[in-house]
Amino acid sequence: MSFEDLKLHPSILPNIAALGYESPTPIQMQAIPVAIKGRDLLGIAKTGSGKTASFVIPILNQLLSNPLGERNRKPEALVLVPTRELALQVADVFKALSQNLPQPIQSLVVYGGVSINPQMKAMYGVNILIATPGRLLDLQRSNAIDLSEVKTLVLDEADKMLNLGFKKEMQEIFDLLPKKRQNLLFSATLSEQLSGLNNVLLTDPVVLEIDSPAETEELINLSGYFVSDDRKGPLLRHLIKSQKMKQVLVFTSSGNKADKVAWKLYKNGIDASSIHGKKSQSARTQALKDFKSGKVKVLVATDLISRGIDINELPYVINYELPRSPKDFVHRVGRTGRAKTEGLAITFVTREETHHFKVILKKMKRYMDMVDSETLEF
Ligand code: ADP
Ligand code: MG
Fold this sequence. Notes:
Layout: H1 13-18, H2 26-36, E1 41-45, H3 51-65, E2 77-80, H4 84-97, E3 107-110, H5 117-122, E4 128-131, H6 133-141, E5 152-156, H7 158-161, H8 167-176, E6 182-187, H9 192-201, E7 206-210, E8 220-226, H10 232-242, E9 248-251, H11 255-267, E10 272-275, H12 281-292, E11 298-301, E12 316-319, H13 326-333, E13 343-349, H14 354-364, E14 369-372
Parallel strand pairs: 1-6, 1-7, 2-4, 2-5, 3-4, 5-6, 8-13, 8-14, 9-11, 9-12, 10-11, 12-13
Helix pairs in contact: 2-3, 3-4, 6-8, 13-14
Residues 21, 24-25, 28, 45, 47-53, 308, 310, 338-339 line the site of adenosine-5'-diphosphate.
């Protein structure tokens, strides 16, 4: 199947081609027609399977098929995401796909940690708003935005958006939206909260769950090391050097630890920086940019960037510390093995964590060969 077969507005097709997308991925193939029809949708598909374009394309298509009225701070589509970094990334896809359209479609990204005034000014005439929940509510409270004409709501990383951490903000946002609207929910993982809430949120939804082996091949290779805490640093350096890793994303469980690990690497002559919620937004943006461009070889991160972040052909992910939940594990390792490119995710496990680790693997339905680092010299 080709994008032409999806009967899209012809002006979108050159933009899709310019991104290098030759044919729709399985989730795109199924989700785009459903979303174009205006149906509610719950789309569950693996990390890196192209969920972003599955909502960006139908939203643009919809806006192109209906003449736009005077917008005046009344966006017609609202896309909510859990982090600022993901907001920026999704906004980039909207921008790339809205080049040279017969009528200009304006998208705007808003998130916290930066000055609100430019965002308030830029709101005028916006058709599509990509936002993190906190800043969206700030803008609403300043009367900078009117959500009463939102026709399509997207929750990317839907299970995260609907879990406890965002509950209060999301409830407030739902109350501001028109009752009658289209809801598009996407995630790689589904949680009990989501299955409960989708009854409230979604009206007669189409549920797409793309996970059969025929539809998606396994691109994420997994390997692991049993290692004591005090040998993790030396093992990390050994792996980076011996495997000549050029780009590796390392996950730790706290910002503090991320800083420490990055600093230790740096002191040992390995280019590294860290990213986590305690850093300033400009430092966060810079760290991710330098890592994506290859300027910095190692990025040590918390789960802040385990969700949705797309780093082109990232070859390695290392779990320096195990995440608490199997879901976080799925999202962390899912930063590699995206868009038909294979990747390797390496996990460090201490002896005390053996049980927790087994629980994660069981939930993942994966097996992992383990190496005992005691047998290695480094
Ligand atoms: P997900 O949200 O499912 O994790 P993304 O939407 O971030 O995945 O897409 C993952 C990667 O695949 C991105 O780099 C994106 O540009 C690329 N991609 C998306 N759709 C296609 C396609 N049809 N053909 C080729 N690459 C694609
Ligand atoms: Mg995504």
